[in-house]
Design a protein that fits this description.
By secondary structure, the chain is of the alpha/beta class. It contains 16 helices and ten strands.
């Protein structure tokens, strides 16, 4: 494992961090302990992730490795209505994580300067100062989901210890972007989330993009720094692009299986900053062009928009819609039918959207969710599909009644 040093704390942070949001509780302990054994020491969770803090805390305590790792968790800013809420949420996180301090504490999902100023109006500055003085918070930071200009404003509004941004090769100018990355990295560690765009840059790449990576791997392209053959998997390419930049400190990977931890940790041990050749960087440009041409709705599947008051599986709808362009309509439709339970008694497809707008106020990507669901309905629920699913629901309903 390679490590990069935090500019303010001096902490030595593993270049690969475990993003805990998507791991299952059943595999949590094995994933956590495999990570620790492979040298990963940065673990990212949040109050908002159901059961996540508890699973991480239990694994660390049971195996007595709390002092070997850095825990990052987050204050659910969107739920803070008064000053006392900060203490309540923080205390719950400590209890869940079975610890008496948090190494890296983030203001979760700041979208603009106004969202930070709102917390300031509730006395967050004094609260942070007290927690840091008491040793309960070691490093204070924020995760960002907004426009680039607002990121710069937030950076300048407070003496942050670190920050967390979404960043990957599909779009260097998205959200904080490369400009925000470079500015922040001058004074603090930058933690990278969504390095594979919620998996879209791994399993969700269109066939033409995957073929580009395969051809390069088969041709034995060589890394200028290591002299080793380029990794062939799309996921590996995505991670290498980030580690190639010295401004990135920790890359969070939402690994859901110990085997993924082993694979990514092995890769992290060989990918240094500046290791990609000019030829390899050109490969990313070619893949980016193919990918962006087919990726219609830039949903990462974070599910912050959920639950929908009308039961729409918004991330599932968007994922299937994008798949229908990137891979094919039939594959996309198969995904849509399963992810929206289209033939069940209570389907969760785009047709159920009433344009209430609750989802858009919570979307960290600032997507026009309502407009997107209209696009999904037009492509994934044409009249003949609605007829077929309606008939299927009726048949299934009759079958259920006959067996009752």
């Amino acid at each position: 494992m390679q490590y990069r040093t935090g500019k303010k704390s001096g902490n030595s942070l593993s270049v690969l961090g475990l993003g805990c949001m998507r791991f299952s509780r059943g595999k949590a302990e094995s994933i956590v302990m495999t990570s620790v054994k492979r040298g990963i020491n940065y673990f990212d969770t949040a109050w908002m992730y159901p059961g996540n803090e508890e699973a991480l805390g239990a694994a660390l305590k049971k195996n007595r490795v709390r002092d070997k790792v850095f825990i990052a968790t987050k204050l659910p800013v969107m739920l803070v209505k008064k000053h006392e809420d900060c203490n309540r949420f923080f205390a719950e996180s400590l209890k869940r994580l079975k610890t008496h301090y948090i190494d890296y504490y983030l203001m979760h999902m700041l979208t603009d300067l106004a969202s930070w100023e709102y917390l300031v109006s509730l006395g967050i500055r004094d609260w942070i100062a007290a927690k840091k003085k008491g040793g309960e918070i070691k490093q204070i930071g924020f995760s960002f989901h907004g426009m680039g200009e607002e990121f710069i404003k937030i950076l300048d509004a407070y003496p942050w210890d670190f920050c967390q941004i979404q960043y990957n090769y599909s779009n260097e100018n998205y959200q904080a972007g490369i400009r925000g990355l470079k500015k922040a990295a001058q004074t603090m560690p930058v933690i990278i989330m969504e390095p594979l765009l919620g998996g879209k840059l791994a399993g969700g790449l269109p066939s033409a993009a995957k073929a580009i990576f395969r051809r390069v791997g088969a041709a034995g392209a060589v890394s200028a720094a290591t002299g080793e053959a380029s990794a062939a998997s799309p996921a590996a390419w995505g991670l290498r692009w980030l580690w190639n930049q010295e401004e990135t400190t920790v890359i969070l990977s939402g690994m859901t299986d110990p085997a993924q931890v082993e694979e990514n940790a092995a890769l992290a041990g060989t990918c240094a900053a500046g290791s990609l050749s000019a030829e390899e960087l050109e490969v990313y440009r070619r893949v980016r062009d193919v990918f962006n041409a087919s990726f219609r709705i830039r949903c990462t599947g974070c599910a912050y928009c959920m639950p929908c008051p009308r039961g729409v599986n918004i991330p599932g709808c968007f994922a299937a819609y994008n798949t229908s362009f990137a891979i094919g309509w039939v594959t996309g439709m198969q995904q849509y039918i399963t992810s929206t339970a289209a033939v069940s008694a209570k389907p969760s497809g785009a047709v159920n959207c009433t344009a209430c707008g609750a989802c858009e106020s919570r979307c960290p990507q600032k997507l026009s969710v309502i407009s997107g669901l209209k696009q999904v309905r037009g492509r994934m629920e044409p009249p003949f599909v609605r007829i077929i699913t309606t008939v299927a629901r009726k048949l299934l309903g009759h079958a259920v009644r006959r067996t009752d």
